Amino acid sequence: MYQEKIISPPSGYLTFALFLVLLGISVFCFVTKSFIWGSSILAFDFFLVLPGLIINNPNESKVLTLFGKYVGTVKTDGFFWVNPLTTKKKVSLRANNLNGQQLKVNDKLGNPIEIAAVVVWKVNETAKAMFSVENYLQYVNIQSEAAVRHLANIFPYDHAEGEETSITLKDGAEHVSELLEKELNDRLSRAGIEVLEARISHLAYAPEIASAMLQRQQATAVIAARKLIVEGAVGMVEMALEKLSQKGIVELDEERKAAMVSNLLVVLCGDRHVQPVVNTGTLYNG
């Protein structure tokens, strides 16, 4: 495994000045018809002095190799001169966005889902990125897809029936993103890649079960709403009976209490407006 070696080459300004001086001398030699000297100086100037000049922009690096051997990496931005015989490969140190494609996988419960992630990454160690893997850009793409697939397989999309404590892809976004970022850093560290952030950008049931799952979610929501309505209605009926008894407005036997409770529950729990019936007779005769 290659370890990054950062080097600080000399400034290129003095070398560039030397290049101009040698260029002037070669021109003078040609003018004075000293063609051998002029050709030699010109060849030295263009083949040994000029090729060693490099410009390194901010958040950019140059990986240097000499006859197949790793020499070092220049990470400082500026104008430098290096060994002209070295091979110079540019590696960007800027942050990159990987907008992953939508993948169709099975979650922990076996339900087919669609999932995609956005990964923010950058090259941290240039030597590993250049020499440990064939193509670090392709390596990031493939490993990111593999990590997202693995993450989808170990968590359910939503809570199973009667289970509310487990982490799901839908509700545990923060925890899932942390696990995805950690797994990506473990996978990509061998290529010198650092993952700055990883987030789930798309999550949905696959089209073939989306309709059925939507009906299931709607049914669950209706049941939860009905449960809340019934609990509230029972409380209101209880309060009504208690107030009537405390203030002595009317005395009801058990049969009339049951009828009153039934009527109040119908009114309070019904999903349609109830038409009232006015009783104009006695209390016990309609």
Question: How is the secondary structure organized here?
Answer:
Blueprint: H1 12-31, H2 35-49, E1 53-56, E2 60-66, E3 69-74, E4 78-81, E5 87-92, E6 96-99, E7 103-106, E8 112-123, H3 126-131, H4 136-154, H5 173-188, E9 193-205, H6 207-247, H7 254-269
Antiparallel strand pairs: 1-4, 2-3, 2-5, 6-8, 7-8, 8-9
Helix pairs in contact: 1-2, 4-5, 6-7
Structure report:
With 286 residues, this protein is an alpha+beta fold. Strands 6, 7, 8 and 9 form a four-stranded antiparallel beta sheet that branches. A three-stranded antiparallel beta sheet has the order 3-2-5. Strands 1-4 form a two-stranded antiparallel sheet. It starts with 11 loop residues before the first helix and ends in a 17-residue tail after the last helix. Its main location: membrane. It holds the Pfam family Band_7. It comes from Pedobacter lithocola.
